[in-house]
Specification:
Layout: H1 3-18, H2 21-46, H3 67-81, E1 89-93, H4 95-108, E2 115-119
Parallel strand pairs: 1-2
Helix pairs in contact: 2-3, 2-4
């Protein structure tokens, strides 16, 4: 394994053992954001004609071609840029997910009047 995987494992274990779910959730979200941005950039690069002889043709091609990965990278950058207290936040999900999200947003300093909630009940899940 690469060294950064070990660093990530240590950070996740430390956060999990200290019981800091909010911090663990933030680290998890940022890790996914970094991964998603990297995959989007790699998709653009590997689908260029320069790599046609080394990369198999895509079995599925998204409509609008490279627009999807470009928009994904822009959205990822906007999410990472924050600051969250200046944004409107919309949450929709199970009661437990909504409570966890509210806790994380409270920690991030988002005022409750900027949070809009729609809880799903058991029949909707």
């Amino acid at each position: 394994m690469d060294w950064w995987v070990w660093v990530l494992v240590i950070v996740v274990l430390a956060l999990a053992l200290t019981g800091s779910f909010v911090k663990l959730a933030v680290v998890s979200a940022l890790a996914r954001l970094v991964t998603y941005t990297g995959v989007s950039a790699a998709t653009l690069r590997l689908r260029s004609p320069r790599f046609a002889d080394r990369v198999a043709a895509a079995s599925f091609v998204a409509p609008l071609g490279p627009l999807v990965p470009v928009v994904a990278m822009l959205v990822s950058a906007a999410i990472a840029a924050g600051p969250w207290p200046d944004h409107e936040v919309y949450i929709c999900g199970s009661p437990g997910m909504v409570r966890g999200s509210l806790d994380a947003l409270d920690t991030a300093g988002v005022p409750r009047d900027r949070v809009h909630i729609e809880e799903l009940n058991e029949e909707e899940l």
